[in-house]
Amino acid sequence: MGENDLAFKRLAALRPGDLARLLLGGDVRKVKPVPTDLPAQRREPDWAARITRGRESFILHAECQRDDDADVDLRMLGYHVGFHLRERAPVRSVLLALEGEGAARQRRTYRVRVGGREEIAFRYDVLVLAQLPAGKLLDARHPLLLALVPLARGGGERATLAEAVRRIRRAKLGPSARADLLTALAVFAGVRDRRGLVGSLVRMAEMKKSVIYQEIFAAGRTKGLEQGLNKGLNKGLVQGQQKGQAEAVAGVLAVRFAQVPDAVRERVMKVTDPERLRSLLAAAIRCASLDEFERELGA
Predict the structure, then answer these.
(1) Is 39 helix (H, G, I), strand (E, B) or coil?
(2) pTM greater than 0.90 (yes/no)
(3) Domain boundaries, the chain
């Protein structure tokens, strides 16, 4: 089982109501998870629950899928029939696609014809997370959706990821649940090659408390997760040091010359080369005038 599936299953178990609302695009009255061990299936379904909405009651089944799979239609059909036979209830199946194009919500049909006659017409929904606006997930007020932000459109931006992390930390959750959401966010960030960026926002010590991390560890997959996060953390530390050096230069100028034009300060703050920043700090200390420093800055 891949780390995306592990993260998805844990989130679904943790916040089934949040997941049901996302998949159905509306509110539900009652969500009761049901077992996913269907007979005669080579792979266990990802999640299913009995949904009560108004007077309607049905089984909601969801699969989390990253890559295109030629057999996905058959798997969805097999799970659909399996749940219908076991639960004796109508079934609505939804494929949660981590990547994809087109509309965010789609309807897919699998057809089988024999002798020109249609014998099977199986329909299921597809929710393409890559086409959902990240802002919609941030504003939904359902904690589970915050962990999915890296997968959404615009969710790879640092400011957006930082806001998702901030809201997870502020949500009314227990320590273990909070750790699970932060770890899931880091896992899903890997789909968009943003795991390094998340590493500068989430501490590894936080994630090691989560059930998701322990399951990934048990599957021997934590090395890649930690390497990606540590790369981002190290990058964040370097960027922090560079910003501190630039602020030191601006601070010396403010002390020596009282009024420093905003344009000069902005140019200083844009410098990222450590050697250049050390040179500018020396110039700020020894120069006789602001004009002399500006000449050094422009050199």
Answers:
(1) coil
(2) no
(3) 1-131, 134-220, 235-298
